[in-house]
Specification:
Radius of gyration: 15 Å
Strand content: 5-15%
Number of domains: 1
Helix content: 25-40%
Largest sheet: 5 strands, parallel
Length: 175
């Protein structure tokens, strides 16, 4: 399985989870958005489609990519459309020190790990999170939603679960 990061160099490199994943050879860096694999799943917080467990085959065949940018510049980063199949993650709480407890404001490591967990690559998700002091906290904070999301059969089930766990909120208002 191929994991990619399109890195926009907007954050402090010492705190950047994407760089750490790259240093541990868990992801490949994509330096040009034109090189994003055509049928890869691109994690995009503004996408209308939601990642579901049935996306596992697409990820296995084509890869998974996170766009690493500053949350302060997120609107600018996602103005352009990224090649690939853009999907958002279901609602989860961040555990990283910068955005702890904030809905949806995940680091690149949290985003990739969440996606892997949801498509039932749980060991791989845990491996990513094990590199960070707060990785176990992320799994603890999101244990029930992640487990339930990983059992969902369709987007409608995910939407229902989001409402059960987090109520009627819009992620776009939160980011």
């Amino acid at each position: 399985m191929k994991l990619y990061i399109y890195h926009l160099h907007q954050d402090d490199p010492k705190k950047c989870t994407a760089i750490k994943l790259y240093k541990f050879k868990l992801v490949r860096l994509v330096k040009n958005p034109k090189l994003i694999p055509k049928f890869s799943i691109v994690l995009n917080p503004y996408a209308s489609k939601i990642l579901i467990p049935l996306d596992k085959k697409l990820i296995e065949d084509n890869g998974l990519i996170a766009i690493d940018c500053s949350w302060n510049k997120i609107h600018e980063a996602f103005k352009k459309h990224f090649k690939g199949i853009n999907k958002r993650l279901p609602f989860l709480l961040a555990a990283n020190p910068v955005n702890y407890g904030k809905l949806g404001k995940l680091s690149s490591a949290e985003a990739l790990a969440s996606a892997l967990y949801i498509v039932n690559y749980k060991k791989e998700a845990e491996k990513i999170l094990s590199l960070f002091k707060w990785g176990e906290t992320f799994l603890t904070l999101n244990k029930n939603p992640l487990e339930d999301y990983s059992k969902a059969k369709c987007e409608e089930e995910i939407l229902k679960l989001e409402k059960e766990y987090f109520g009627e909120i819009s992620l776009t208002n939160n980011i």
